[in-house]
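Extended Data, panel c. Modelled sequence:
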Amino acid sequence: FAGGFRPLFVSALAAGEGTSGVVSSALAWLQNASNEQPRFSPSVYFALLAVVMLCSLAAFHALRCASFALAERMAPSSDQPSADADDRPLAGAPPAMVGAGCDG
């Protein structure tokens, strides 16, 4: 999926993946799990992680469906056909070509 964008955006994706690890580590540190009395329950910890995952899901959906993201996608290379070439719209393609699950 990320290969369909310019290298600048792939670098941003890698930075975001690293940041997600920092967020979960920071939550574990705030939890102070080494003490007998944690600061918040495991349910709160996992709810906070679920919020992070929902944000990731929303960002993924935006990258698949939003017109501003569609304009940044690269056309698939004709010399190296890929299995998902039909799923990747060309830059500047109309929103109808974005794919299933998008509301145009």
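The helical segments are 7-31, 42-65, 67-70. This feature is highlighted in the accompanying rendering.
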